[in-house]
Amino acid sequence: MAMTNAAVHDLVQRGYEHGFVTAIEQDTLPPGLGEETVRAISARKGEPGWMLDWRLKAYRHWLSMEEPAWSSVHYPKIDYQAISYYSAPRTKDAPKSLDDIDPELLRTYEKLGIPLEEQKALSGVAVDAVFDSVSVATTFREQLAEAGVIFCSMSEAIREHPGLVQRYLGSVVPHTDNFFAALNSAVFSDGTFVYVPAGVRCPMELSTYFRINAAKTGQFERTLIVAEAGAYVSYLEGCTAPQRDENQLHAAVVELVALDDAQIKYSTVQNWYPGDAEGRGGIYNFVTKRGDCRGARSKISWTQVETGSAITWKYPSCILRGDGSAGEFYSVALTKGRQQADTGTKMIHIGRDTRSTIVSKGISAGEGRNAYRGLVRIAQRAENARNHTQCDSLLLGDRCAAHTFPYVEVKNPSAQVEHEATTSKISEDQLFYCRSRGLSAEDAVGMIVNGFCREVFQELPMEFAVEAQKLLSLSLEGTVG
Amino acid sequence: MLSIKDLKASVDGKEILRGLDLEVKTGEVHAIMGPNGSGKSTLAHVLAGREGYEVTGGSVELDGRNLVALSPEERAHLGVFLAMQYPVELPGVNNSVFLRTALNAIRKARGEAELDAAAFLRLMREKLKLVDLREDLLKRAVNAGFSGGEKKRNEIFQMALLEPRLAILDETDSGLDIDALRIVADGVNALRSPDRAMIVVTHYQRLLDYIEPDCVHVLAGGRIVRSGDKSLALELEEKGYGWITGEAA
What we know:
The structure holds two protein chains of two kinds. By secondary structure, chain A is an alpha/beta fold.
């Protein structure tokens, strides 16, 4: 243990010579939000003037906006002046060692087989190092560079690739889009930038080391992925291990741009700290995610497995602008304890012959509240648009809730829109059947729920599908009986 | 091996089994017959430990262990297997994954090493031959979209794989055509073993043309009212249940 700590210490001292993670700032801005805050953030990141201007424009717009209240989630009013908008990833308030961490969380790490050092990073213990992945990261970067793929932090992209950032940032989710997107645009801390040039198939899943870094990307994350004509990229964010964070409010923005014949596959495994049994201290995950199928025959596919956070409020969406473009949304959202989720998607059909598929699986246990909210809009000129929506809810116990709010707007008579919805409980027969074959009640529920989610899991990259199944079973522990 | 003494059980407060006695030795096959509502299926479920079937008196011992207080999975670990009359569907749950998980849960509970995927696949292929089940059914979800006959054969296949000490077949013959019945019976016969006991619950004598029981019991009014050898089944076929249940009443 002591030796490991020493090794980690060494790594920290060495700093991030391989550069994926930007240098760690040691300071924290005092709580409060004003123009000075925005300027201070931009200055600390050494940003060019155009970036500061963009942030300020967003901030001024944000001031004119009202916090939305239309969702089905409930939370105490957020005091935006009480939040610190820039903090080094590890504040002095960070736990000193794993001894200070909720034992329940540690038990979960153990079950997921997370290495000790990764446990520290995930739980926010004040140790900072890209353990075990430095050489791997270098290899990856070389391989990506060879293919012409840019994969770096947003801060680095602003410095190194200003033309691309200026061209695409805010082009899918403008700073005026919504309250939280405006806030993010003003104060975003960092995030990820991916650019895949025309005709290039990204040679790897962009996930492997990002998941380790993900714990540090902070409160107001900004992600931008651009796939040029004929490009393909698969990106995975998040991590099956529960992540703890000092920051309660997470308002990320993710923008995807797919040009002609390009394909972007974006997978999320979200397992932020849901809070204790009473829901205290959990993360509010209020995210704006949108993909723009700008080119003809382009395709954007969202897959999400949401098991964490006290509140999940997000609608990864697709704007099907290009003729023949396609959007997909596959979602598993699990709420238990006091967790709340209001999630779904928007499929905006603008181009001709556009197709969209929505498969949503909501699981509620304990006193969890789960809402699917989705919009399918077929614009006037979207000839021959097609949508299929399947929306299934599974209830465990009798104190949880599931709601479905499907909105369908069709302005073109040639559209075909289908909506299927089911709500079910795990039957006594199913449970008994499994148990009579030797499975414990918990394993039986895990297996049945995983079966319920299979259509979504099979959309995940292989290794994550396996982890997601494990995660789901683990999340269900204690919800039986 | 299995010893049931004065077993009483109720469902929803209604007493169904009213003092049932049954002794089954290893290697034996016992048939339980009886009219509808006599308690045959209740007995099968009580033995497997289904919730909602409340044992209100008596005892059930398997190899000297009292089963009554045990959960369904604990009974499975001790070697109890119930082939169900209506096997349920588990949408999205892959059949072979389900079976491997079940087998390994049982092996683990017994302190045996778990089987890896390759070893399990070999075992599965070997057992498949017993029931003439297509291998591709194992890649599908458990019982989902299976025909009635396939579901029953899948039950026998599971039994072959889990190698129970006590197998209970609850009206496995119901809904089967004669070919499927023969396949199921062949599977059951292949699984007869000196280390295993079987209880075959059936309404009709037909199944017993293919599975020859060592003993036949007639259940009526929650008790065993008559026991005999296989000729009892033939007699029942001829005379119906009335002459026995009438006696018992």
